[in-house]
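Why does residue order matter? Because the sequence determines the fold. Keep that principle in mind as you read this record.
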Amino acid sequence: MRSRTLAALSVVTVIAVAAAGLSVSREMSVREPGGVGQKMLPGLMDMLNGAGSIVVQGLGSKVTMVRTDDGWTIAERGGYPARAPKVRELILGMARLERIEAKTRLEKRYSRLNVEGPEKEGAKSKNITIFDENGGVLSELIVGKRRFTLEGQKGVYVRIPGDAQAWLAKGALNPGVTPTEWLRREIADIAAKRIAAVSIRHPGGQTLRLSKEAPEEEHFKVEDLAKGAKLKNAAAADEIAAALASLELDDVAPSSEVEFNADGVIRADFTTFDGLRASVMLSLNDGADWARLTFASDLGASQSGASQSGNGEEAGELNARTGGWAYRIPVYKASLFKKRLADLIQVEK
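Structure:
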């Protein structure tokens, strides 16, 4: 009797274990679809040389990057150059994404990971589409929240449009969706120590003039000081000479789209000791600080005996970069172009 009972119990145990194993297997097949450890976008790396444009959209904005013979440009800014390293980082980041863990397949849970389609109202996801030179889609990806994996690696939630499965992928991907985030920011970089003279002419004719006779002079001399007038300090005018040093843009537009009315423009002229001349027109018409720049080489203008070689080439390169464009520049830089003589004078108590 006892042996029959034990046999029966053994059979029941085997069936229970088998049922449990089947249940776990089914659960794992749902939770862990194939592809863990594989590239999120297989084959993309081999197709990148054929990329013709990239569109990043989300959060109510969009940026379109177009590949040209001279590099990547921003369509929404009239074809102005994009930051090449940033574009390269984006496309390589997509190609290197690796599947770590399968997440939800339920649409109602996408918002938790920010992988809902960007067309959905209130969506916080970002959609990246890479097109070939003929406009065909090479790859497309919905990018959601970022997170670190248990091993401390950078990760991001992603989903391929048309595929219900969301994934946690290993890699760093945080694409900007506004054109200004992708613009090449550098305008000019002319060090203050190169500057020999500055002239700032305001609407109405009031002009501020600064100069040095040699680069070794510690401070700029302010010309046309009234009798008895004193500067706030010996270095009061020095910061103006740094206006063209590390000058970067906040935004850009074709110069034809920005009004530079003679009655509302400040003109600042800079001359270097080695003969480079820079002219900056600052528009005061719409409340924003928009600048237009032109450059020239004046080999007869050297005031220090410094080498003049290369100035013609430098002026040409700067004109090629800035010609035809108007730049919205940072407020602190614009304030240097707006300086008046009164700003430098000590006020008597």
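The helical segments are 2-31, 44-47, 84-96, 110-113, 311-322, 331-337, 341-344.
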